[in-house]
TrEMBL record:
Domain U-box: 144-281
Protein name: U-box domain-containing protein
Protein's organism: Brassica cretica
Alphabetized UniProt keyword annotations: Repeat, Ubl conjugation pathway
Keyword Repeat listed: yes
Length: 327
């Protein structure tokens, strides 16, 4: 069967190539590895450039199956020029099944460290940043696009390009527009946290950024809350003097206190660290005769001075947070 697939791809007419590409996707992993050694990547890439959507779709599926689980094939495919072809497909394709396949294919190719610089050297990052904000793109395609950007941004030298392409703004838009408890919000906030870790000034000047992150802390899943807290912690640590007041004015305290009590393990740690940055904790040294309620009232007075009011139902959370910070 492998020999028929190879012969059809190398020497067959277009109909035979389509049948061979379909059959290739159905081969076992071991069989796919064997046929990949026979120079079949070039004809499959040629099929990608066809004006016929069926040809494009089956060749994408076949190439994706070759790349899956094989670092060698990922490198071969990128060296053969696949990235530029995928860029052209994503710029012009309107059939969503092909767009989704192309996004999934890019995700797999970008998982290989040897491919990351080559992928980043094209205009693909700018294109992905633009695509993830489109309403007509499916959730799965957005998830794959964000995951591809995440793969690329694990190389620190690529992060400035991701930032300059507008990724922080696009990710904030995604977080703002989607269900905060969804996987999409989790992945978008995770990537944004990674970007802010390397470039803490990257969301400065983006109007409404702090508000979106505060809403994520209030409404998000446990993971989304964790990432949102991490982003605000990075921003506040970078420039406490400028950002502390802005964060407080957006009403972060109720949600932040909640995370400090019942968030993920990492979320709790970061929430408490951020609370210390937001409060002037030098004035909260517990004296032998100072009751816990006095410390709570002291914090409440400072919060009020910032123009923020915490509902009475949050008093217990504040008290519990103080207890844990002081142990």
């Amino acid at each position: 069967m492998e020999e028929i697939v190879v012969e059809s791809l190398l020497r067959g007419n277009r109909e035979a190539q389509i049948e061979a590409a379909i059959e290739l996707s159905n081969l076992s992993r071991k069989q796919r590895q064997k046929v990949a050694e026979r120079d079949i990547i070039s004809p499959l890439l040629s099929m990608l450039q066809s004006q016929d959507s069926i040809t494009t779709e089956v060749s994408l599926s076949a190439l994706l199956s070759l790349a899956f689980g094989s670092e060698r094939n990922k490198v071969r495919i990128v060296k053969a020029g696949a990235v530029q072809m995928l860029l052209e497909i994503l710029q012009s394709e309107t059939k969503m099944v092909i767009v989704e396949l192309a996004m999934a294919f890019l995700l797999i190719l970008s998982s290989c460290n040897r491919n990351k610089i080559k992928i980043a050297s094209t205009k693909l990052i700018q294109l992905l940043v633009g695509l993830i904000g489109l309403d007509q793109l499916t959730v799965q395609a957005k998830l794959d696009g964000i995951a591809t950007l995440h793969n690329l941004s694990t190389l620190q030298q690529i992060v400035p390009l991701v930032v300059s392409s507008g990724a922080p703004y696009a990710l904030l838009q995604v977080i703002n527009s989607c269900d905060k408890s969804s996987e999409l919000a989790e992945k978008a906030s995770s990537l944004l946290e990674n970007i802010v870790h390397h470039s803490p000034e990257s969301i400065s000047g983006i109007g409404g950024a702090i508000e979106v992150l505060v809403e994520a802390i209030e409404e998000g899943s446990a993971q989304c809350k964790e990432h949102a807290v991490g982003i605000l912690l990075g921003v506040c640590s970078f420039d406490r003097e400028t950002n502390r007041g802005m964060i407080l004015r957006e009403g972060v305290m109720p949600g932040l206190l909640q995370v400090s009590v019942d968030g993920t393990r990492r979320g709790k740690e970061m929430a408490r660290e951020l609370l210390l940055l937001l409060r002037d904790c030098s004035g909260y040294v517990i004296k032998d005769k100072q009751s816990k309620i006095e410390i709570v009232e002291q914090i409440m007075r400072e919060i009020d001075q910032e123009g923020e009011r915490i509902p009475g139902t949050m008093l217990k959370l504040v008290e519990e947070m103080i207890s844990k910070l002081s142990t």
